[in-house]
């Protein structure tokens, strides 16, 4: 066929296929318009999954009678302007929208009605667009002093084939809710309201700008437990600032659905975030567990390209290695600063089983006081103890040997500890061993219950890591016959570029012609490993995350398994000296509040909590 120029209606419908994928996509575009207009309150209504009706109302600056006709024209926008040389700069975009496509695209596939009053104007005006046909501008009633009300009815009525690809009303409603939550998390100073089929779903009042207001908004969206188990993130590097909150390792999920990244106020989905979180939490979580996080990147707009995705859901960084390094470093710093703190959720659920509805007392944690809930795995003073107390009592090897000797001469099930003042140590003095699994210690103002296997597993794991660091890396084993691994040339080049990093973990490789690598040595910890599979996993990691996580995770998995098998087991009886030695080593070891799988190693109950259980308070 000869080349033809498409009519404007067809062009708009093609554009709508890119911009308006589903009702949630239309709502995203309209909410971003409202935010760009400086709105302090945004109300969203949707019926039948947004296919029957969508309403987005805001109190932004509004549009005048001369702007309404332009608002529904393609590539007409108030968010771009030429510079002093007359050039239109697409590399310095500071607004959420900039293409001028959303309203004409929606109007080409639905019945669109826009009513608006400009700030300071006496009258309001409205325009209708139905399937691309535009009505005349007419005066309209408007409830507020300024702002806009955009109503969309019968979405995709002009392209009925698209309706066949829509999911159920429930799925579309869930997508709308998720979109509003993301926008609300990105803009805590703006109030949001969401109604679905007449039901009130979200009511989020405006919060103060800053860390406290942001945490309050995240708590309202993600739940109170996130606030109680969140670590503050605030780091800067070379003009890029990372802030926000990440969950404790002991507060994790089975998927990565609760990992959010916002770039200059824009919610985006980026594989870089998942890879960085995976790397930062590698020492604390099993591979099938995922941390919760809401991270905010602020950087010069010229350092990020937001014009790489039709729906602006993805961005491209000029220096992705800088961003990745900042995220990993900031998360590791926050995790290290958390010391022995672990999730609050375990004790809460346990206590609620005794006295439903009774809130236990809450201590102050290093100057930060969470809402009233029972605490798990964090005791004031523990962080300081890790920094200044040398390990006391038995080391990992002697401890394991001592426990082994108990097989021949088991101690009584309950054994009185040596005379130790509980006030002297954050984890207190051991008083008993229960069910040959849990150590009960008395602290200054409560008790601590320690899972002896989980706690010692973390101690052994940290000791193995320290020994590897002292030895200058993982021990290597030379292959009798070096193995050649063939890859795609681009993959082989990526892997060869990180050869020095891999060598630190015991894997020695070198290029072997186009698209091939020669493996000379492998980590001794891995034993007789699948070299071909390992190299291909590393290549996949580099392609997806920009990091060679596969090797590091395999080594850590082996270390974790060795730590698990080399630790004191449940069912072993411990003497009072051994129990206290375990407590002292926990106080002196970083991250001993959780085991290698992300579970708490101990739970603290305050005396006030116990008294409540017995009705003394």
Q: Measured on Cα atoms, how large is the radius of gyration?
A: 30 Å
Distance between the termini: 86 Å
Q: Count the helices. How many? A: 20
Low-confidence stretches: 355-378, 381-418
For the secondary structure, the number of strands is 25
Tell me, briefly, the overall form.
globular
Mean pLDDT: 81
Helix fraction by DSSP (H/I, runs of at least 4): 25-40%
Q: Major beta sheet, specifics? A: 9 strands, mixed
Give the percentage of residues in beta strands. 15-25%
Structural class: alpha+beta
Report on the structure:
With 617 residues, the protein is an alpha+beta fold. Helices cover 35% and strands 22% of the residues. It is built from 20 helices and 25 strands. Strands 1, 2, 3, 4, 5, 6, 7, 8 and 9 form a 9-stranded mixed β-sheet that branches. Strand 1 and strand 2 form a beta hairpin. The longest helix has 19 residues. The chain is globular and about 90 Å long. It starts with 7 loop residues before the first helix and ends with a helix.
Short description:
With 617 residues, this protein is of the alpha+beta class.
Features:
single chain, 617 residues, alpha+beta, nine-stranded mixed sheet, five-stranded mixed sheet, 20 helices, 25 strands, 22% strand, globular
Topology:
Elements lengths: L7 H12 L3 H14 L4 E7 L5 E6 L9 H4 L30 H8 L1 E7 L6 E7 L2 E2 L3 E3 L6 E7 L6 H4 L5 H18 L4 E6 L2 E6 L6 H12 L1 H5 L1 E8 L2 E8 L4 E2 L5 E5 L2 E3 L2 H10 L9 E2 L1 E6 L5 E2 L10 E2 L2 H18 L7 H10 L27 H7 L7 H10 L23 E6 L3 E6 L2 E6 H19 L5 E11 L2 H9 L1 H6 L3 E4 L4 E8 L7 H15 L3 H17 L10 H13 L13 E5 H7 L4
Parallel strand pairs: 1-8, 13-16
Antiparallel strand pairs: 1-2, 2-7, 3-4, 3-7, 4-5, 4-6, 8-9, 10-11, 11-16, 12-15, 13-14, 17-18, 19-20, 20-21, 21-25, 22-24, 23-24
Helix pairs in contact: 1-4, 2-6, 9-10, 14-18, 15-17
């Amino acid at each position: 066929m000869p080349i033809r120029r498409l009519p404007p209606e067809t062009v708009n419908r093609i554009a709508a296929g890119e911009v308006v994928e589903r009702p949630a996509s239309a709502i995203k575009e309209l909410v971003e318009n409202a935010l760009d207009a400086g709105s302090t309150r945004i109300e969203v209504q949707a019926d039948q999954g947004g296919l029957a009706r969508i309403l987005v109302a805001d109190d932004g600056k509004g549009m005048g009678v001369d702007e309404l006709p332009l608002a529904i024209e393609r590539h007409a926008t108030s968010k771009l302007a030429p510079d002093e040389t007359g050039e239109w700069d697409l590399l310095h975009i500071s607004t959420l929208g900039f293409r001028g496509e959303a309203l004409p695209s929606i109007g080409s596939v639905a019945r669109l009605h826009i009513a608006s009053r400009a700030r300071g104007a006496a009258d309001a005006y409205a325009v209708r667009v139905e399937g691309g046909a535009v009505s005349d501008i007419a005066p309209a009633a408007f409830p507020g002093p300024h702002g806009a009300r955009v109503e969309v009815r019968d979405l995709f009525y002009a392209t009925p084939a698209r309706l066949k690809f829509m999911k159920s009303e429930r799925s579309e409603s869930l997508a709308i809710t998720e979109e509003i939550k993301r926008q609300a998390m990105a803009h805590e100073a703006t109030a949001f309201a969401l109604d679905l089929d007449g039901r009130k779903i979200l009511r989020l009042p405006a919060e103060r700008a800053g860390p406290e207001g942001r945490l309050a908004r995240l708590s309202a969206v993600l739940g109170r437990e996130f606030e109680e188990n969140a670590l503050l993130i605030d780091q800067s590097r070379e003009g890029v600032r990372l802030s926000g909150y990440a969950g404790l390792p002991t507060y994790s999920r089975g998927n990565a659905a609760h990992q959010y990244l916002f770039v200059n106020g824009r919610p985006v989905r980026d594989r870089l975030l998942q890879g960085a979180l995976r790397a930062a939490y590698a020492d604390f979580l099993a591979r099938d567990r995922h941390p919760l996080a809401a991270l905010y990147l602020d950087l010069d707009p010229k350092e990020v390209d937001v014009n790489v995705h039709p729906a602006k859901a993805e961005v491209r960084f000029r220096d992705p290695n800088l961003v990745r390094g900042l995220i990993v470093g900031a998360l590791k710093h926050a995790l290290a600063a958390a010391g022995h703190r672990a999730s609050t959720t375990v004790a809460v659920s346990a206590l609620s089983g005794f006295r439903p509805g009774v809130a236990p007392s809450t201590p102050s944690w290093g100057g930060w006081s969470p809402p009233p809930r029972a605490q798990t795995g964090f005791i004031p003073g523990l962080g300081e103890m890790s920094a200044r107390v040398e390990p006391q009592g038995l080391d990992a090897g002697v401890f394991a040997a001592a426990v082994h000797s108990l097989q021949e001469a088991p101690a009584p099930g309950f054994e009185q500890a040596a005379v130790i003042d509980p006030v002297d140590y954050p984890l207190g003095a051991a008083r008993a061993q229960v069910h040959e699994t849990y150590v009960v210690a008395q602290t200054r103002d409560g008790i601590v219950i320690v899972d002896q296997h989980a706690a010692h597993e973390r101690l052994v794991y940290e000791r193995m890591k320290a020994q590897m660091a002292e030895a200058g890396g993982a021990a290597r084993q030379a292959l009798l016959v070096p193995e050649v691994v063939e890859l795609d040339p681009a993959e082989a080049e990526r892997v060869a570029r990180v050869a020095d990093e891999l060598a630190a973990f015991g894997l020695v490789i070198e290029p072997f012609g186009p698209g091939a690598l020669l493996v000379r040595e492998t980590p001794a910890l891995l034993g007789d490993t699948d070299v071909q599979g390992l190299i291909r996993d590393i290549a996949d990691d580099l392609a997806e995350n920009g990091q060679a996580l596969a090797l590091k995770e395999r080594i850590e998995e082996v270390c974790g398994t060795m730590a698990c098998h080399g630790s004191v087991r449940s069912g072993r009886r411990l003497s009072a000296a051994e129990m206290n030695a375990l407590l002292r080593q926990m106080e002196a070891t970083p991250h001993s509040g959780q085991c290698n799988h992300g579970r708490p190693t101990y739970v603290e109950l305050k005396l006030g909590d116990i008294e409540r259980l017995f009705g003394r308070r």
